[in-house]
Known about the structure:
The complex is a heterodimer of chains A (579) and B (191).
Chain A: H1 2-8, H2 10-36, H3 41-47, H4 51-75, H5 82-87, H6 109-112, H7 124-143, H8 150-157, H9 177-183, H10 185-202, H11 206-211, H12 213-220, H13 223-232, E1 240-242, H14 244-249, H15 252-255, E2 271-273, H16 278-301, E3 304-312, E4 316-323, E5 333-337, E6 347-350, E7 360-365, H17 369-377, E8 395-400, E9 412-418, H18 423-438, E10 447-454, H19 461-476, E11 483-489, H20 494-502, E12 518-520, H21 525-535, E13 540-546, H22 549-562, E14 571-575
Parallel strand pairs in A: 9-10, 9-13, 10-11, 11-12, 13-14
Antiparallel strand pairs in A: 1-2, 3-4, 4-7, 5-6, 5-8
Helix pairs in contact in A: 2-4, 4-7, 4-16, 9-10, 10-13, 13-16, 18-19, 21-22
Chain B: H1 6-30, H2 36-53, H3 71-79, H4 82-85, H5 87-101, H6 108-126
Amino acid sequence: MMGCWVLNESLSIVLVLSWLGVNLYLFIDTFYWYEEEESFLYTRVILGCFRGPWRRQLDKNLKFHKLVAYGIVINAKGEWKKGMSRGVRVRDKMQTEDSHPPTKKTPKIMISHQSSELFDSKLETPTIHIVAHLFNLEHYHWSQSPEAEGLVAALSKLGDTPNETYLNPIRTFHTNTIAELLTTIAGITGLLISLALILIMTSSTEFIRQVSYELFWYTHHVFIIFFIGLAIHGAGRIVRGQTPESLLLHNITFCRDHLEEWQAQCPVPQFSGKEPSAWKWVLGPMVLYACERIIRFWRFQQEVIITKVVSHPSGVLELCMKKRDFKMAPGQYVLIQCPSISTLEWHPFTLTSAPQEDFFSVHIRAAGDWTEALCKAFGVEGQPLKEPWSLPRLAVDGPFGAALTDVFHYPVSMCIAAGIGVTPFAALLKSIWYQCCEAQTQCKLNKVYFYWICRDPGAFEWFADLLLSLETKMSEQGQAHFLSYHIFLTGWDENQAFHIALHWDENADVITGLRQKTFYGRPNWNHEFQQVAFSHPSSNIGVFFCGPKALSKILQRMCRVYSSADPRGVHFYYNRESF
Amino acid sequence: MGQIEWAMWANEQALASGLILITGGIVATAGQFTQWYLGAYSIAAGVLVCLLEYPRGKRTKGSTMERCGQKYLTRVVKLFGPLTRNYYIRAFLHLGLAVPAGFLLATILGTACLAIASGIYLLAAIRGEQWSPIEPKPKERPQIGGTIKQPPSNPPPRPPAEARKKPSEEAAGIPTGGPQENPMPVNDEVV
């Protein structure tokens, strides 16, 4: 069973390992460079072994992190290398407000934060960097104290007379280290960018994204300060090494032990600050990001025609739109901006239409300031009907995200949607209908099991409508057995139970109106998987899930338990892409 | 931005600041930096802030995700009543705790972060937010036999259940139960 997990995750594992490997390589390379390099020998004398180098090569690691993070940000947009974006296993999380429907996701910015646990080292590297700096400053400070003696004291005094260049950036013992921090470029920028990073992190936790998406969005733009600060962080050239010319004149192996010869045989060593190199690492991603913003601006200018506006009960707004050259795949999302509401905010929504349709649609529920304003602007819930020319203009950027085309690669697919995770399945089911039922082309997929688990179906009434229309269309085509769906209502009370029991013998379900009956309570997954395995004894079955983590673990376990050991037997492949 | 619950963000920021204060304090104390006693203070302040901020308050709208194991600390924090409920007090407490740590380089980042958290709490307090504990819902005991309805006490024919009410409800004008009273005598005539 472990093999199953490894195969499923293989691409992510390879990516993570190569990322860690490059980090390790950079770390060790720079560490030894600072540790062995002659020009930094005297720096090492003051700072002691291991500390100066630690700080410096962690710099390199930090820069690499950012380079990779931005590389992944751009890749995941799906504009470049779709394969790369899938490999990253984007964990786009849906926004919730209670059991309200999803239609909103965290955008590609999440990817740069690498929701997988292995990538959480975004904080460790800066922490070690800062801690090492603190030790360095203390050592520099202490080297200026009257108690310091020998080589350390001599080195620290360098630079006091004219013609000498200094090594120790702290010039006198009486300076306060905090004053040093605040008067050097490195210190101020370091403090600022650490603050920026912490603010970004605290406003990006899953909880805060649920509480207020706008807070997350606006605070995240503090990254501008972060990157500018990072680029100029080294401009003060505090890390100093001996100049090459001085190395030729001043033989360090001899002179370090012969302080008394420093006026005679050993000319005074000269030092210069190391060139800042952060900008080289940061430049690439910044250019890519600038390109991304330019593309978004260009897309902003493109015309979006709204072909249909539907106001569903319980405040769900469906917008059907058209845009030139817009190509999508099921499971992707778009960013929508409404300039009349806010010129700065782009909000993500999952696409709910199939690629075969000549329009694309999103379902929006009023769950916050922006969505409420949007619903009002489009005349939802009791507002007077709007004329087409009075509708506000929309801008659409996208589509982004991993496409859900794996469903078509299996002969049998199980799609499980819990709560708010049902939205991408709207697009998927429609797409399945077009590709496998309506079209005359041969389709590898010949059976779909769909499980929908939710507490309150009222908010998803539009999805129930979709299921009903699919059910009707399929039975017209004679393919009534293609799609088998099961709805589980987990929030029910006694009154409902009475009502349902009363109408149990009728043909259509009393709550949804669908021909397949609704179940009450949670599904018994053992039973479901057993049934499916029994019905398809030697097939490969793809399992696709969107919903909370706890259920994801249960389903993974089910896949492992019910996959047979026989290679010709039934095999469940769990697809962990949460989309 | 009108609907943001600022206290939620302030809570995350304060918790992070607490951790940063502890880290900076440990570095300064372990490294025996000059004025390392401020580092020791910073550890204590950081621990206090973390304990205070760990239990998340309840959101006014929607459901709140609890932090793992927070219910024990919730009980303790609740004990302090208005001292912990009121965000003005929290804002000034955090500001006060942050100031001494600002004099040591190792903990200055913690100071800055905690000061920001204090500012956000002030904003939350001005907007009238306050901390309320997340309490577990009391488990509804299933009443044994609660759904078993009393069998009817009259023989048939009897009026429907709503009419079979107690005499005390007659005042409400509901028709009384009881056997049907015929306005004229009825004979069982077999012709």
